Please model this.
Amino acid sequence: MTLTQGPDIGLAPTGIDPYLFRGLLQRVAVAVAVVTTPSGPDLPSAGFTATSFTSVSVRPQLVSFCVDTCSASWPAVQCASYVAIHLLRAGQAQIARTFAAQGTDPLADTSTWLPGVYRLPILRDVLATLVCEVAARNPVGDHAVVLARPVFGRHEDGDPLLYHMGRYQRLAIGGE
Model:
């Protein structure tokens, strides 16, 4: 792939300034998801907040999310055959913060989830839930891109929780 240097966009083969890169990415509003994994013989259930959840393909049905390979959740994701992906609703920023916090067990409060199929922790009262079979894990930089095939799904009406400019946000519908 050949990159051409543009006078205004600063493309270079070695990348751009990391602070500029982070600032550019903060301007993308994304849905907030929580990914949970089942417990295994040697690993407890795990869960983490992901702002990288996206659809990949309709035929075959595939979704993806990214996980930091240095995170406490990675060993469980690395071994899991199935994961549950929960889209949070507006007003659930505290759940997102709980699952994003390091050094705590986000699943310790058993009133917020129930045991589901494949021993997956299923969060209560979220906007949508997808139970997926892990299809592939592809290491990319300091993360792994996980591809997953939906095997069960449900959703409710409501507004999603978004992440934009380093903060949790609500969707504001309006005309231009």
User: Anything to note?
Assistant: DSSP finds three helices and twelve strands in the chain. The chain has one domain: 18-163. Residues 1-7 have pLDDT under 50 and may be disordered.
